[in-house]
Amino acid sequence: MKLFDLSGKVAIVTGSSRGIGRAIAELFAEAGAKVTISARNQGPCDEVVDAIRQKGGEAIAVTARISDQAQLENLVAKTRAEWGRIDILVCNAAINPHYGSLADLSDQAFERMMTNNVLSNLWLSKMVAPEMRARRDGSIIFTISIGALKASTVIGMYGVTKAADFALCRSLAAEWGPDSVRVNCIAPGLVVTDFARALYEDPERRAAREAETPLRRLGQPEDIAGAALLLASPAGAFITGTTIVVDGGRMAV
Fold first, then answer.
1. Which of 15, 54, 81, 194 is 20 to 30 A from 44 (CA-CA)?
2. Pair 94, 15: CB distance under 8 Å
3. Nearest to 6 by CA among 25, 27, 33, 26
4. Are 247 and 146 in contact (CB under 8 A)?
5. Taking all residues of the chain, what is their mean pLDDT, rounded to a whole number?
6. Which residues pair with 210 in a beta bridge?
């Protein structure tokens, strides 16, 4: 058995037109998986598909807004229509429209963030789980954040949604584990992506964050992709209901 081989597997990766999601999708394709690239806009998805195909991999693009259940159903249906199965689901897409105090958080922003960051993960998981449970094989991965594990006065609500994802992961792992379906989370620290730009674009803030991180740097999307491959592949066959923290040691100090 090749521990990190995904040959014959089919994966859906949401939020995979850029950043962490793209790095995960490209690594999965390199490992042999057929990958569905999904984000809100067609053009960026097509670019990732082209990049994968140029390296000899297999990929298709299906746009979807994670807040729209019907669009997620279409994402799953088109993936099955193309390849006949779904073995791996990576719920990576998320939103973070609110920076600052929870005291200033509107009900509308709360509900929108919970729908996009938590409910969408449950929707997608429930859509793919029946076939995984029937085959007694499957891996579901949620991209969360160390914001789920520590307090923040800047991204507090984002942390609330990601903590909810961790709780969701553990309960699904307990429910579906007897059918050999694994559910796990990856909690990145601060990663250099467009999504997190507001947290590092100020040079002083970035320098301070790097100084308090044991590895003395911010993360790169590729740093997260390796953990995803572990959880998706035979190498992670005995891992479920947990969170792998990938943060350069930030949570250790």
1. 81
2. yes
3. 33
4. yes
5. 96
6. none
Radius of gyration over every alpha carbon of the chain, rounded to an integer in angstroms? 17
Residue in this structure with the two tokens 């719920």, named with its chain if needed: 91
Q: 39 and 93 in contact (C-beta within 8 Å)? A: yes
Long-range contacts of 66-74 (CB under 8 A, 24+ apart): 66/14, 66/15, 66/93, 66/94, 66/116, 66/120, 66/124, 67/112, 67/115, 67/116, 67/120, 69/123, 72/120, 72/123, 72/124, 72/127, 73/127
CATH code of domain 10-188+221-245: 3.40.50.720
Q: Point out the residues that are catalytic.
A: 158
SS3 track for the chain: CCCCCCCCCEEEEECCCCHHHHHHHHHHHHCCCEEEEECCCHHHHHHHHHHHHHCCCEEEECCCCCCCHHHHHHHHHHHHHHHCCCCEEEECCCCCCCCCCHHHCCHHHHHHHHHHHHHHHHHHHHHHHHHHHHHCCEEEEEECCHHHCCCCCCCHHHHHHHHHHHHHHHHHHHHHHHHCEEEEEEEECCECCCCCHHHHCCHHHHHHHHHCCCCCCCECHHHHHHHHHHHHCHHHCCCCCCEEEECCCHHHC
pLDDT at 181 over 80: yes
Distances from the Cα of 121 to the Cα of 30, 78, 138, 150, 204, angstroms:
25, 18, 15, 22, 35
Q: Tell me the average pLDDT across 64-93.
A: 98
* Cα(181)–Cα(226) distance, integer angstroms: 20
How far is residue 1's CA from residue 108's CA, in Å, rounded to a whole number? 49
Q: Which amino acid is at 212?
A: E
What are the sequence ranges of the domains in the chain? 10-188+221-245
